[in-house]
Amino acid sequence: MTRLLPFVVDPRDLRNYRRALHEALNGGDAIAPLTDAGAPGETDVPAGVALVVSTSGSTGRPKRAMLTAGNLRASATATHERLGGPGQWLLPMPPQHIAGTQVLIRSIVAGTEPVGLGRFGTDEFVRATAELTGERRYTSLVPTQLVRLLDSDALTALRSYDAILLGGAASAPALLQRAADAGVRVHTTYGMSETAGGCVYDGVPLEGTTVELNDDRITLRGNTVALGYLGEPELTTEVFDTEGGFRTGDLGRFADGRLQVLGRADDLINTGGMKVAPRLVEDALSHLPQVRETVVLGTDHPEWGQVVSAAVVARSPITLAGIRETLAADLPPYALPRRLLVLDKLPLRGPGKPDRLALRTSDQWQDWMTPPVAEP
């Protein structure tokens, strides 16, 4: 067994956390990154575990994934191989989550000094980018951060990166096209705490990772998959297998040989017996010029069970009637949004995932009152 020590992470001072990670990778005590000192004290974990990191809780209560030093090093090495070699990293997100921690792990493996932001802001991002001195420069963002940077005066800073990893939430095709048109080198990532972060880039697994689809449900398998959840043997047995596989609970399909993630099976919207994948509606909405960001989910309805509901951060005035009229050529009638929530910004949790519970329970939804035609 290995001793597990809680470690309170200060986003303004990454050196101590980086030092603790370095020791854990080299056989020292395992650490559990926290944001406050009120967490449980030390305990024991299986030998080889270097990091116990909480999941974001976006799919329920947070769990604590046990990652070995081998998991973490394999992830960092495979990332650098895919991106073209080691480099210097900028950390613009919370360091205690797996995406932030992996920026530090990659820096340790590469032997480079990362630059961190105490808090994210477009001006802070530009200033921190100017501090980078490495020949190759990388950073990791969530979609909301990229949207804000593209909307600001940060384009020169964004273009200076050899690669920007984009993950934590769904990336709208329109956002990716906008970044590409601006000369920003973005790579979408798919992964989670249980896989030591992203292990599929641009729909293609990293070295050492394989993707399996069983009834459209994604299983990730390889050398970055965690040993299981701390203190939860039954749940570990349910979602991890003995051959290095993790059953994600996400739905996916292969398109032109690349994995396309459709979202969580639990998030499928059942409206009058018809199943709607929120990701497909989000992709359609993202092409509307009025839409800056969007999240689609199912909200309860007394007659249909659920209805397709779109939360939108808008660039210009937008109406539910206008959305439905515009998207009618791209979506079947039952997939058109029947509720709209216009926000100044999306509620987020964890490293940048939309807070679907907060959206679902909002009392500000606008309803489409016209009786459905050719709908369930």
TrEMBL record:
Instruction: Name the domain of life this protein comes from.
Output: Bacteria
Q: Where is the AMP-dependent synthetase/ligase domain?
A: 41-204
Taxonomic source organism: Yimella lutea
Q: Which InterPro entries match?
A: AMP-bd_C (IPR025110), AMP-bd_C_sf (IPR045851), AMP-dep_synth/lig_dom (IPR000873), ANL_N_sf (IPR042099)
**Which keywords has UniProt assigned to this entry?**
Ligase
One function term, GO molecular function aspect: medium-chain fatty acid-CoA ligase activity
Its family remark reads: Belongs to the ATP-dependent AMP-binding enzyme family.
**AMP-binding enzyme C-terminal domain: from which residue to which, for each copy?**
281-353
A biological-process GO annotation: fatty acid metabolic process
Q: Which Pfam families match?
A: AMP-binding, AMP-binding_C
Protein's UniProt keywords contain Iron: no
The name under which this protein is listed is: O-succinylbenzoic acid--CoA ligase
